[in-house]
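Box 3.1 — From sequence to structure: Abasic site processing protein
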Amino acid sequence: MCGRFSQSMTREDYLALLADESERDIPYDPEPIGRFNVAPGTKVLLVSERDEQLHLDPVIWGYGPGWWDKPPLINARSETAATSRMFKPLWQHGRAICFADGWFEWKKEGDQKQPYFIHRADGKPIFMAAIGSTPFERGDEAEGFLIVTAAADKRLVDIHDRRPLVLSPEAAREWMKQDTGGKEAEEIASDGAVSADKFIWHAVTRAVGNVNNQGSHIICPIK
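Predicted structure (token representation):
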């Protein structure tokens, strides 16, 4: 699954890999986002396409439509979201990208759970597939979004059996296009995913378990 991630670089560090400035309707902001411990229930910067331009909106991470009487959901399985009664409309019309530096997973070691930070070996940002209730620019009236997950493979299984669906920059653009159909999106999810061998991980401080803890030390390796 994906229940915590880091979004700490500047907007440009992420967006420059997705599109030229002419293809974005997003104000330039040189300040780092600086969120090393992003948790569900908070507003997260989400990229989506409207009128053939990329837009950036703060959207609540967690999807809970008006009729839903349980805690908001934060993940949707790529294997079933396209056909799920609850998620199919979002898959067809509410695809977006959540950019990040990497994500956290907890692995049981003895009597405790040790958090790990998983990121690309080359240090590049990651682009996690997301679906949500549009229009995203509704702000507080929006019903939120979910991060799409896939089965972990290869060595990533050692940490957790699920992982966020991380797309290549090219696949991420196709994923967001409004004229991409639901079936095409399924193909993008399958063919455009970044392979497990591109990722590495290291143990980090258990302080990440407290959502109030921020700072670069959260993602630094511990000895």
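Summary of the box: The mean pLDDT is 92.
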